[in-house]
Amino acid sequence: MTLNKKLFKINELQILILGFLSIIFIGAVLLSLPISSQKHIHTNFLDSVFMATSATCVTGLSIVDTGNYWTYFGKSVILTLIQVGGLGFMSFSTLLALLSGRRITLRERLLIQQSLNSFNIQGLIKMSKYILIFTFLVEAVGTGILSIHFIPEFGIYRGLFYSIFHSVSAFCNAGIELVPYHNNADIVLTISALIITGSLGFYVWNEIYGLRRVKDIKKVSLHSKVCITMTIILLVSGTILFFMFEFKNPDTMGKMNLGHKLLYSFFASTSSRTAGFGSISLQDMTRSSKSLIVILMFIGGAPGSTAGGIKITTTAIIVMTVISVIRGRQNTEIYKKTIKKDLVYKSIVILIIDILLVLVSFMILGVIESRESSETIFFECVSAFGTVGLSSGFTAGLSTAGKIIIIVDMFFGRLGGLTIILSMTNRKIPNSIKYPDDRMLIG
């Protein structure tokens, strides 16, 4: 009896998904061991899966207090999951292959292309080397700056570990923290710089690194221009809006001086879009600020970065498409460049799929967690799907079914709803048949 080989043939997207699932499972097993908890007891396996998913998907949502519940072994497992999840497991597979001297196959190159969201497979190995070197270098610099503050307070070993953990967590946009640090402006600014660096994407930094003269700026790709422009727009507008919304709020920034108000407004704008580090009390924020956070979380960072969300390039294409339609133009134009129709369609599909996924999880959680307000549940769903990790205190009280829904949200948010859906479909090469044009009334 012969088996149909097609039943066992999986594509690159499926391998990518299985790789993330394997990492989460291994992390969950390690976190469930008594050596991982301060009480030296077995941690509930679902709670371990939740934490492993949150770390691997660089989300930051946690059912327990990360700083006090886990031992250094458990925290090291979480740190490793954040690093692997932030860069993608294929980057580390490439590192192991390079260290062992093994040749990278064509299929592995295709996997790296999917993992890095790259344009093509040319130069991927060089790109992977650059990503690893760049990541460890930035994290090392972040660790050095943070250790100046953490080591005098916590001692050499503990302070160094905290410095490494927060540097990796910030660069990978995970938002998991072990100790409070929000009263230290130097740490807040360092964390902000790491978050922004990680959220811009490796492709953008590779182009920036390649600039040798000021005149070379004109040669920067449209992708990098859009990522940098959108990042600046969102950071500045977010800072201004948070400043306005919380300026007189006595429970958040109302009693601060002007300098601290600007600092925490900037940090809220930086962290809300991708990382999820807390700065001011989320529960005490105004509704306008919470609504702004939801929008920023849903947008996210750049493609090929450690951030989640629908991505800033997707947002830019959709916004410019709307503007082009209003202006009566047939094509979407950005920086005097025409965006291909397939990218416009894909952006719209990503937006629709991600909205539907958030709404479905919101409706299911609304039934399961009926004791919570709709506002709180919706915020949690967007936070999980955007892999941001900000929470209004709802996570710790999730039921078993509620934890599973949030786990699914985090996983879909990290890999992308469209990516997972495409991995489950049998895509065929489109034929050359074109049906007759017709019209419909819309709007």
Can you walk me through this structure?
The protein is mainly alpha-helical and 443 residues long. The chain has a domain at 124-419. Helix content is 63%, strand content 1%. The chain is built from 18 helices and two strands. The protein has helices spanning 12-32, 45-56, 66-69, 72-87, 89-100, 106-116, 124-154, 156-171, 185-200, 202-210, 222-246, 258-274, 287-299, 312-326, 341-368, 374-385, 400-415, 417-423; strands at 332-334, 337-339. It has a two-stranded antiparallel sheet. β1 and β2 (337-339) form a beta hairpin. α12 (258-274) crosses α13 and α13 runs parallel beside α16 (374-385). The longest helix is centred in the first third of the chain and has 31 residues, at 124-154. It is globular.
- pLDDT averaged over residues: 81
Q: Kindly name the structural category.
A: mainly alpha
- Gyration radius, to the nearest Å? 22 Å
Percent strand equals under 5%
Q: Helix segment count?
A: 18
The count of DSSP E runs of length 2 or more, i.e. the number of strands, is 2
Task: Outline the low-pLDDT stretches.
Answer: 1-8
